[in-house]
Write a structure and sequence with these properties.
With about 350 residues, the chain is mainly beta. The protein folds into 2 domains: about 5-170, Sandwich (Jelly Rolls), CATH 2.60.120.260; about 175-325, Jelly Rolls (Sandwich), CATH 2.60.120. The chain has 2 helices and 21 strands. Keywords: Hydrolase, Purine metabolism.
Length: about 350
Amino acid sequence: MAEGDFAALPDLAVRPLGGSVVAASDESFAVKENLINPWAPAFRPETFGPRGQEYDGWETRRRRPDARGELGHDWAVVRLGVPGVIRGVVIDTAWFKGNFPPVASVEACAAEGYAAPDELTGWVEIVPRSPLGGDRAHAFPVEVERRFTHVRLNIHPDGGVARLRVHGEPVPDPALLDGLTVDLAALENGARVTACSDEFYSSPAGMLMPGLARTQAEGWETARRRGGGNDWAVIALAAAGTVRLAEIDTSNLRFNAPGWAALSGMNAHADPDAWFPLLERTRLQPDLRHRFRLADAPETTHVRLDIYPDGGLARLRLLGDLSPAGERALRDRWTRLTG
């Protein structure tokens, strides 16, 4: 898979999705948690603290050969916020110009339950030892067709890395979803945005993130429309199901919320060109969580959200039930990727 293909997939390791840097060999100059910050790496020159120049990244001490003459290497373990199939990894050495690691590799493993870092086993190399340059992002496609829960970044021998991005496709455990009312539009359950009219300020994938948006930057916001028409986004649901309740959240959007919204559904298994109404065009208020019960909705695999004419949404929740076909599809995928 080329970089352009995987870069649009969600970052399974990013902190707002629940990712955590659970262990590292060393963090003498800059803390390991910076690796999964959601924002672009920043740098302020001549900002020195007790650890030296401050970096928005992870930086280890300079290694020296031990008594056996071995240099070794540094590493950091990241628990993915959402387990899934990894399609590509980005190792970004932004702002590290004289202290970047010359070589890096990445491993991954799958651990069920709530394993501690020292209990992780079965590591698989997904990015072989590869050269790095300073102050640049390095993209590495991954071809391993398996579900993973953790990754380990190895840097040889030491140095600084600003960000680690782990792009992929969420793979939820069907045992946690079968027979329950679930958010069919949640990214952590496997939903994804497949198309949109505009993402000038932020991607519509932000609407599918867990938790409440803290600022208007954590949802979806389009540019101001000066012509006709309206903005829209299409979401592939986690699996086929019936949507019972829709939540359209404009929290934090006080002066740029849409005036109205509508929802349409489609069952790709029955007719991929036939859209049916789920929620007729409905007026919205700024900075408010709107909840709408949907009566007699048919089985749905995709939902189109139309906002009029433009603006932003904090979150979109589509609560409902998986259909028998949806449950079966999730179980089959789970078996294929974990067996």
